[in-house]
Amino acid sequence: MDTVPQHGANCSLAPADLKMFARFLIPPELLKQARVERVSDSEAREKFGITISGDKSGVVFPYFSPLDGVRRTARLRRDHPDMEGGKARNKYVSPFGDRKHLYFPPRCADYVKDPTVTVVVVEAEKSVLALTAWAERTGRKILPIATGGCWGWRGQIGKKDGPDGERVDEKGPLSELTVCSDREVYVMLDANADTQQAVRAARSVLVRVLCSYGARVRIARVPAIPGVNGPDDLLAHGGDDAIRSVLDLAVPALESAATDAEAAIEVVRKALPHPGVDKMRQAMDAIADVPDDLHQEVLKGYLSDALRGIIPKKRVLDEVAARVQRREQERADSVQQLEYTTAGPVDGAQVAEVIAGFLRLIGVNYSFP
User: If you count Cβ atoms within 10 Å of the first and of the last residue's Cβ in the chain, which end, N or C, has fewer?
Assistant: First the structure.
């Protein structure tokens, strides 16, 4: 498997690529360190195992483990993605069969190990590199990580028993997300997190998981400016001061939860008399995320009034209460997962002796070599 290259390795980017990255104030040296490279269709297939149909030429962002430097996966930004209904489809693709991973900047092992360093969660690899370069220019000590989309922080984490006893994929937060445990975390998703309810819902769930890890979460909002989507676009538009302002104006996530819930209820109101199940569920989820009991009661009243004649008030209250109970269970499960993740190394000899003792107990005489 690949490891992070030595300083100065050739990144094979075309002049047009370098010009594009320069817009986001990402220097060529950082691109070399991150081993970002341009690939042809055949190189994407042969070197990275990307086998999707269609033209695979484009720019590849390899995903390296921040601690051991091993390449875990990669994501290709295609020059010519498939088009469907006038919209690009499969613009970003990864090797088939690879598990999801978070994207870390190069040479960040010390920051990963240091809980005093603030984590900034963004969606795109370009945003990670843009913020890394920004931090170096401004002397800000941050660890940007990318999820690869608003739901990219979730993926297959193992196997579990299905309803009929069959083994099925188990999905949940990626284990790498525990880097956020017990530290300051800014969630800085793309600008549409405040305009698209589905993205806002993804942010709410992410914040909930991070809080369960003991993270002190703040919401950093990328302003809705024409031509600006992610933090990288904001840097191209407003320079270093624009990013500084967004981070300085970030609000605690628990305060933002009430705003998100009010917005979700407004979406339900605008969709009346047929709000749809998804919109109602998102509103209930958002209310359950509000930590203040009194404010939560007020919001439940707002939603009940909006849904009068559609859903009984008791049903609304019961649904929100069930979600609150699930949140508490999720927090307990997250603590247990963190204890397992951060446990010390397993004593193999001790485990072998326990297994041998069990076998002897059931009448099987066996000793491990």
Answer: C
